[in-house]
Write a structure and sequence with these properties.
Length: about 325
């Protein structure tokens, strides 16, 4: 099997692009698909009027690429996930972002295609956007599905030692030396450098993308993102020493992504915010070895208590450009 061309963002539809790749050719897929929530009217807010709790400027964006009927969104999801499964290696992983608007559909399609869901991760955002209507709870999380190709023998790569002993500053739910849980406390704030050359309305912070990459791939592996946007997944891959392939239909975002990549460089261990360990493993169906002294398998239990969140530990609240649905 020939290796696909890498370190390129193609200005084409992701389904068309993935169809050109051979089977079992990529090690990692990070997908941030349309959430299908561009409904309702246009809203915006600026600092010309002060209102407690509103933070900085924001506006609700309406995008044609994020507006589907239920039936068309289901078919679209089935099409891109079919190709994603085909090109993913048995040792590979796939991470899929979503919210309650679309995660249910993605979950069902994964089951129909026999894509195994390893974990459902809750991305908790302490700086969540406030609810303006006062008619529902404030949405403060997104859902991430961690999946593998699905097979009788599990072969997906997982750096367990990094997940347990890596450094995760700012995540107040991760205790040092304890197993990583399925709730991640990661601010949605982006650094100035991440927004320096332009931004995408649903852009994800590099910190969460690098965590996914380090948990489920090795240096030199190929990361593919079907919905590249402003290129954050590709930047995260480059900075962590992985190769990348991206697809994006909007030429404006392709240009932003390429500019960001031109200025990105591979990190050294000294500057990594979350330093990976030297040990890692692949997951198989093998049962744990028995404890010779007692004849029973050892179990590792995470018994750490939730840390208290002090005011000084809280990150400054900044609201980026968001896409959301507003009750009237």
């Amino acid at each position: 099997m020939s290796k696909p061309d890498t370190n390129i963002i193609y200005n084409i539809d992701c389904i068309e692009g993935m169809q050109k790749l051979p089977d079992n050719s990529v090690d990692l897929i990070i997908a941030d698909p349309p959430y299908n929530l561009s409904k309702g009217g246009d809203w915006k807010w600026d600092n010309s009027v002060k209102l407690e709790g509103m933070g900085g400027n924001w506006n609700k964006v309406m995008q044609n690429w994020d507006d589907y009927t239920l039936e068309s969104y289901f078919e679209f999801t089935k099409m891109w996930l079919t190709e994603a499964k085909r090109i993913l290696k048995p040792t590979g992983s796939m991470w899929i972002f979503g919210t309650y608007h679309n995660t249910g559909i993605i979950n069902v399609v994964c089951q129909l295609l026999k894509i195994e869901i390893i974990n459902e991760v809750i991305w908790y955002k302490r700086n969540a956007f406030p609810n303006l209507s006062g008619r529902r709870l404030t949405a403060s999380h997104e859902t991430i599905l961690w999946c593998n190709k699905g097979a009788k023998k599990r072969e997906y790569y997982f750096d367990y030692e990094y997940s347990k002993n890596g450094r995760f500053p700012g995540d107040l739910l991760k205790s040092e030396g304890k197993q990583m849980r399925t709730v991640w406390d990661i601010s949605n704030n982006k650094t100035k450098e991440e927004l320096l050359y332009g931004k995408h309305p649903t852009q994800k912070p590099l910190k969460i993308l690098k965590r996914m990459i380090r948990l489920s791939s090795k240096k030199g592996d190929i990361m593919l993102t079907p919905f590249a946007g402003a290129g954050s997944e590709c930047v995260a891959a480059k900075e962590t020493g992985r190769e990348y392939i991206g697809y994006e239909t909007d030429t404006v975002y392709v240009e932003i992504a390429n500019t960001r990549l031109e200025h990105a460089s591979i990190e050294t261990d000294e500057v990594m915010e979350e330093t990976p360990s030297s040990e890692s493993s692949s997951i198989t169906n093998e049962k744990p070895k028995a404890n010779k002294r007692r004849g029973k398998a050892k179990a590792t239990t995470n018994t750490d208590k939730e840390p208290n969140v002090k005011a000084k530990d809280k990150e400054p609240v900044e609201y980026e450009q968001l896409t959301f649905t507003l009750d009237t």
